[in-house]
């Protein structure tokens, strides 16, 4: 199925194997409190007057913004949700990647991912010096214990790659907004092309960005053309419980390795 191969490639690119005409103030009501991650101060220039890589009514450097976002989530607790889908226009068929990452600290986190086309679900719980991995497939499941890696080193490039790719739009509309008493910037835009993607149409992107470069939410939709079809691409990620997330070992970890994990962080 050639279309399946093309869609898998499209999803995997982001999933990873690894003049400003005045800002209007809005008040945004959010379903849950979210605090802005603390980061080291960055000198502001006209080219980054809003956030790193953002200024003058433009996304000047999406890669710089992506790097700032990666730095903003380091050594922070949070819950991150991601959903990426591709749907054929002329025939039935939707592929999806759904992921969830819960982080208490750099060495205590829980990651889960499912893919609709493979029937393969992966879960990883990291604590201290060990990473516990569970893979569930149609043929069964297996458990593996591996050396731990800091969460930002292992998974931080995933949201950063989405920022770099989907916010490479140039001109943008930016509005100041308050989220739980903190200043954010709501960025919206469109473009005719983005990196690592062929011909596209109807591209729309929305993001909520802090002055530190923390991209709290990112939502994208567009049509991508293939040789014999079109596909609707939808991507979204969002952060919650920033600065307040805690992580406990899942049941399968405590059953498989009862002597190697603790119930609370230390």
Low-confidence stretches: 1-11, 13-36, 38-46
**Amino- and carboxy-terminal Cα gap:** 49 Å
What is the C-alpha radius of gyration, as a whole number of Å?
20 Å
Query: What is the helix content?
Result: 10-25%
Number of helices: 5
Strand content: 35-45%
Overview of the molecule:
The protein has 266 residues and is of the alpha+beta class. The chain has five helices and 15 strands. The protein has helices at residues 2-15, 62-73, 151-155, 157-166, 251-256, and strands spanning 26-27, 54-55, 58-59, 78-88, 94-105, 108-115, 120-127, 130-137, 140-147, 170-171, 173-179, 182-189, 200-210, 215-225, 230-240. Helix 2 runs antiparallel to helix 4 (157-166). The longest helix is centred in the first third of the chain and has 14 residues, at 2-15. It is flat and about 55 Å long.
Task: Give descriptors for this structure.
alpha+beta; 5 helices; 266 residues; flat
Strands, helices and their partners?
Blueprint: H1 2-15, E1 26-27, E2 54-55, E3 58-59, H2 62-73, E4 78-88, E5 94-105, E6 108-115, E7 120-127, E8 130-137, E9 140-147, H3 151-155, H4 157-166, E10 170-171, E11 173-179, E12 182-189, E13 200-210, E14 215-225, E15 230-240, H5 251-256
Parallel strand pairs: 1-11
Antiparallel strand pairs: 2-3, 3-10, 4-5, 4-15, 5-6, 6-7, 7-8, 8-9, 11-12, 12-13, 13-14, 14-15
Helix pairs in contact: 2-4
